[in-house]
Amino acid sequence: MKLFSSVNDVQNIDSLVAEALALKQNPYAHQHLGKNKTLGLIFMNPSLRTRISSQKAALNLGMQVIVMNLDKEGWALETQDGVIMNGTTVEHIREAAGVLGQYCDIIGFRAFPGLQNRDYDYTEDLFNKFVTYCKVPVISLESATRHPLQSLADLITIKEVWAAKNPATAETKKPKVVLTWAPHVKPLPQAVANSFAEWMNQADVNFTITHPEGYELSPQFAGNAKVNHNQNQALQNADFVYVKNWSSYEDYGKILNDGKGWMMDNEKLKLTNNAGIMHCLPVRRDLELADEILDGPNSLVLNQADNRTWAAQAVLKNMLLTDKF
Ligand code: CP
């Protein structure tokens, strides 16, 4: 694997999940793989989980890790070609990525969308340029339209919890998984929702998306998922509920309403099949998700965060094994 930017870069998602769960049982079994190899983690935006879990995953594999908040600690980046750089930008992505690729064997890169220009964001211009110019294997730490390490951790969590709840039938019985939109005060990217939908559409689950009208995801990501604008109907008999806000794709980057009535709480939990409640974090308590859920027995948010390490370690292990450095 030279690139991990979406589910489409994975040959077999079930094998990758199994690999992650095996690493969770035996984290230090492959320390020889990362000896004298360096992982660079390059951030254009803030992070807690992605930064630390990727670092931990690399250390478990015997790698060394360099982290840089390029947006704050680097030179102001120019990303467009053919411009005379007589303004505020100091270094072109061609040189910046090229240099970082000389110092690192694998690079993780995070760059959020601007949410101003949909066409530009959805071309993944910045991420793709970074991949092109750094010339080493790249892992997306969240790009303009996707967050694949999060989605892999989410799938690991669903598989793990489903197997524990249904030891005899987990392989044959599909869980009902619902992605529900949640209120927020700031316009957020569609990346987590897009990516979760993309992975669930390839996983062995019954998948439904629920959101107010106007928050339809790009058809590229919603795929053949069932969409229901009635949240209470969608939640009926759900085994897993993934709670996430996203701004409008259609009216790009906009918040369309106050989201009143869409927060997941214990009343809505009663509609489900005692569902596990998921969120990628960070979460705004009592706005996106009720305290009573986050502090209750159905919350899986810490399980998901824990599985971020094993997701990253499975991807890194695959890259270390398949690439000749
Ligand atoms: N879920 C997630 O990606 O968290 P961070 O933004 O803190 O890395």
Describe the structure.
The protein starts with a strand and ends with a helix. It has 325 residues and is of the alpha/beta class. The protein is globular and about 55 Å long. Strands 1-7-6-2-3 form a 5-stranded parallel sheet, sandwiched between helices. A 5-stranded parallel sheet has the order 10-9-8-11-12. A two-stranded parallel ribbon has the order 4-5. Helices cover 38% and strands 15% of the residues. The protein binds phosphoric acid mono(formamide)ester. Phosphoric acid mono(formamide)ester binds next to helix 2.
First-residue to last-residue Cα separation: 12 Å
Instruction: List ligands, each type once.
Output: phosphoric acid mono(formamide)ester
Q: Give the name of the CATH architecture of the largest domain.
A: 3-Layer(aba) Sandwich
Q: How would you characterize the largest beta sheet?
A: 5 strands, parallel
Average pLDDT, all residues: 97
- Overall morphology: globular
State the strand order across the main sheet: 1-7-6-2-3
Weakly predicted, low-confidence segments = none
User: What is the top-level CATH class of the largest domain?
Assistant: Alpha Beta
Helix content: 25-40%
Structural class: alpha/beta
N-to-C order of helices and strands: EHEHEHEEHEHHEHEHEHEHEHEHH
Determine Rg (CA atoms, Å). 20 Å
